[in-house]
Amino acid sequence: MSSHGSPWPAEGARLVLVLLVLGALGWILGSVTLGLLVGALGYLGWNVYNQLLLERWLREGRKLEPPASHGLWGDIFNGLHRLQQRQRFRRKRLTRILQGVRETINAMPDAAVILRGNGEIQWWNVAARDLLGLNWPQDEGQRIDNLLREPRFGAFIRERHAAAAAITVASPVDEALVLEIRVIPYGLNQRLLLARDITRLYQLERMRRDFVANVSHELRTPLTVIAGLAETLDDMVPERLPEAVRPLALITQQTQRMQRLVEDLLMLSRLEMEQKPVEPKPVDVPRMLTLLAEEARTLGADKRQSVVLDLDRDWCVLGDESELRSAFSNLVFNAVKYTPAEGRVIIRWKSLDGGVRFEVEDTGAGIPAHHLPRLTERFYRVDGGRSSRTGGTGLGLAIVKHVLGRHGVELEIRSEVGRGSTFFCTFPASKVVDCSRPAMTGAGG
Ligand code: ADP
Q1: Class assignment of domain 108-197?
Q2: pLDDT tens across 92-125, in order?
Q3: Where are the domains of the chain?
Q4: Which of 326, 329, 359, 382 to mutate to test the pocket of ligand 1 (most atoms within 8 A of CB)?
Q5: How far is the CA of 431 from the CAs of 49, 152, 330, 409, in angstroms?
Q6: Which residue puts its alpha carbon closest to atom 3 of ligand 1?
Q7: How far apart are CA 50 and CA 22, in angstroms?
Q8: What pTM was computed for the model?
Q9: pLDDT under 70 in the chain at which residues?
């Protein structure tokens, strides 16, 4: 069975030889034509026989060795056999690689689940069995949101977030396990779901929150006592001990500051611990802002500031009234606090294309741009001295950010040093209702 060079000359020679021999035999027997015909038929028969062999070999497939043959057919069989072996080898290597990848993914402590575009489960690793309770084979092809029934997860998986987005849910296997889940799109309409056990982190975070809340709560009573005593002394001291007047005023001032701090810390803890989303009730923002403007005028009276209102009175917002009042008042009072005498503060509530915007503009000192990204962090202050003089707690903007976040809007800040600042946020049309329509009052969503 030669496998070198082209088989065609040898095959041609074979045909010519067969025809020559049989032609000669025919000539001897008296009919060259008959001889040639027998030769041609014989050659054809041999070819058909080999075709049959080939067909049977391909059909039975599993047989390793090709049928034995000579010449061109031998070469064809050998060529096909070589191809087959090469492919078998490649398949084995791929299987080995795939096996390795699977073993690696199975060794991961995080759950990995491969999803089809519509959320059907295609494959998962061992950790997914333990953390998400996926069972082979009955869960294959199921939709992931049928197995993880938490409604927030259902919404999360339908929304198709960026890869960085994550959601925290309890494990369906064990309520005490807290999972952080991410869904990463890849390939052609496929998604990789990764779930990480963050129970310890979650517990630590809760301990921190509880600790701050507890300390604040414990400080409340003694502070109330001190404030009360300071007030009593304040009534007695002036005649008997004039030198104590100033220290006493300081005690009162600092006690009040600590009380504000404790209240702000408690408010932040409450906002952080609140699991339930805001219950959307119509809030009459124009009315709220009118009252806030009055308070702001009183607050800034000795600085002769003007507080200007510019309101679209038709629009109410769906949200939590006391939370929103706290956020808006922080922004309005900050504007008054950080704007010097004769300055101006404008409070706006204006409808625009995509919704309604709340805005507080002031003619204060402004904030250098590099401070802006960190401004809403707790206790972050641009100018520590000035802030403590104004009696701020450093928690105001953190509260604002939290409240607005709970209402699905974002605090934005524009500021120019020497000219003033504008703090604003835009409520989308879906959160805005017409104040004048009583039908909407009490619309719980
Ligand atoms: P504070 O209680 O110190 O006012 P906030 O969280 O309310 O704390 O504000 C954080 C810091 O942001 C303030 O200390 C102040 O430096 C700056 N800031 C806030 N509002 C304004 C404003 N309208 N103009 C200038 N600076 C501001």
Answers
A1: alpha beta
A2: 999 999 999 999 999 999 999 999 988 999 999 9
A3: 8-103, 108-197, 203-273, 281-434
A4: 382
A5: 82, 19, 21, 10
A6: 394
A7: 21
A8: 0.71
A9: 1-4, 62-64, 161-163, 386-389, 438-445
